[in-house]
Specification:
The chain has helices spanning 17-28, 46-58, 104-119, 141-155, 171-181, 203-214, and strands spanning 8-12, 32-39, 61-66, 123-125, 161-163. The protein is of the alpha/beta class. It has a five-stranded parallel sheet, sandwiched between helices. Bound molecules: zinc ion (ZN).
Length: 229
């Protein structure tokens, strides 16, 4: 998608791999970016710390919105409830369904759309990617399309849109793009657990390791397990 120099956009950045690469990509495309993160009462704050660091390094205006009060309403997920174990199977395995935070991305996107209107931005960039689609319904292309119908109606602005440039890209393809864009992978965090080192066995660690391996790259993050790069 060609960039439009100077057009304002909002990037939703979690501090994970995909949304950090998305921020670099949007800047590279020439958009004038405001970054937005959400504290929704997630299991740990390591990703948000990474998001702050990335935005500081890039000189991008960054707001962290505290919606942590909704955690108890969404406590059926291992990502919002410390009483639920994080599953250790592969990312696409049925067991990962316990990591779904109900309607989380729709909630965040709608807040981001309101913010976009407020600052005169026309795009909201969203880092859903192809591997997400098996488990997470609000990362699917159909969902992005439907949010766009709603956004235009709700905000009465035909130019306002959610853009998900990675929705047909695999994690490995996104890592390849990150390398091209010179993204410092060490400043991103994926692991669902918030340990000193990444666990290497939760679904998102497994997916991340695999994406680096496919690219013949070594992830600069430290892992609790021995990984063959
Ligand atoms: Zn992990």
């Amino acid at each position: 998608m060609p960039g439009e120099k100077g057009v304002k956009g909002v990037v939703i950045i979690s501090g994970g791999l995909d949304s950090t690469i998305l921020l670099y990509w949007a800047l590279h495309q020439g958009y004038s970016i405001h970054a937005l993160s959400f504290d929704y009462g997630q299991r740990h704050g390591k990703e948000l710390k990474c998001a702050r660091k990335t935005c500081r390094n890039l000189g991008v205006k960054h707001l962290v919105v505290d919606i942590s009060g909704i955690r108890e309403l969404l406590a059926s997920s291992a990502l919002t409830n410390h009483g639920i174990e994080v599953p250790e199977e592969h990312y696409t395995h049925e067991s990962q369904k316990i990591t779904i935070v109900p309607n989380r991305n729709a909630i965040m996107l709608n807040i981001a759309l309101g913010y976009a209107v407020n600052i005169g931005a026309e795009k909201v960039f969203y880092a859903a990617h192809y591997n997400d689609r098996a488990i997470y319904p609000d990362c699917r292309w159909e969902f992005v399309e439907s949010v766009n119908v709603t956004a235009k109606l709700a905000c009465d602005n035909p130019r306002l849109e959610v853009v998900a440039p990675f929705v047909h890209k695999t994690k490995a393809e996104i890592v390849a793009l990150g390398r091209e864009l010179g993204v410092p992978f060490a400043d991103t965090w994926s692991c669902y657990k918030g340990g000193e080192k990444a666990c290497g066995v939760c679904g998102t660690c497994r997916e991340r390791i695999e994406a680096f391996q496919i690219n013949g790259l070594r992830d600069p993050l430290e892992y609790e397990i021995e990984v063959e790069w």
